[in-house]
TrEMBL record:
It holds the Pfam family GerE. This is Transcriptional regulator. Keywords: DNA-binding, Phosphoprotein. The keyword DNA-binding applies. The lineage of its organism: Bacteria, Pseudomonadati, Pseudomonadota, Gammaproteobacteria, Lysobacterales. SMART domains: HTH_LUXR, REC. Residues 3-119 form the Response regulatory domain. Transmembrane segments: none annotated. CDD domains: LuxR_C_like, REC_DesR-like.
Length: 200
């Protein structure tokens, strides 16, 4: 039996996925969560074979969860199921040790097959996205990405500095670097561009 923890912040979709996977022979959903921190606790509690997670969630994103699993050396393999058909997200997912990356509009049977393939040691990556993933490299550093994400969410430089334990000048430098690398006119445009590319 392949034991699965499911992390999806939309309750209706989470219930539907849980029911769907429960109908598949050899698959068992042992835990479900609506945010990243709860998902992390479920992973520690159940030590499942697979984590099926969305990218954007409250608390921890699916990518942050994958990176934490990798950092702690857990045996759980991660499969991302998302609406984000963005090459930048796929590249970051692969860097975080993710074994599967599927889009939510894929047929249900494909998801079950992908989970079995990942459990058996393979990978399951949306083929079109895999091609696009290597067409354009992410120019941002992790710190530039953090600062730009907070700026795009409306936080002032002083607030960002306090949150990330940086000086005000350092925050301005990171923002300036990110804006320059993206060829944007200002921080909001840079944030929008980076999100479109899947780099945030």
């Amino acid at each position: 039996m392949i034991r699965i923890v499911l992390a999806e912040d939309q309750a209706m979709l989470r219930s539907a996925l849980e029911a769907l996977l429960g109908l598949e022979p050899g698959l068992e959903v042992v835990g479900a969560a609506g945010d990243g921190e709860t998902a992390w606790r479920e992973l520690q509690r159940h030590a499942p074979d697979l984590l099926v997670t969305d990218i954007e969630m409250p608390g921890l994103t699916g990518l942050e969860l994958a990176a934490r699993i990798q950092r702690h050396g857990l045996a759980t393999k991660v499969v991302i199921v998302t609406t984000f058909a963005r090459a930048g997200y796929l590249r970051r997912a692969l860097d975080a040790g993710v074994h599967g990356y599927l889009l939510k509009d894929a047929p249900a049977g494909e998801l079950a097959d992908a989970l079995r393939r990942v459990h058996a040691g393979g990978r399951a990556i949306d083929p079109q996205l895999a091609l696009e993933a290597w067409s354009e490299a992410d120019p941002l550093t992790d710190r530039e990405r953090q600062v730009l994400r907070l700026a795009g969410e409306g936080h002032a430089a002083n607030d960002i500095a306090g949150r990330l334990n940086l000086s005000h000048g350092t925050v301005r430098n990171y923002l300036s670097e990110a804006i320059g690398k993206l060829g944007a006119g200002n921080r909001i445009e840079a944030y929008r561009l980076a999100r479109q590319k899947g780099w945030l």
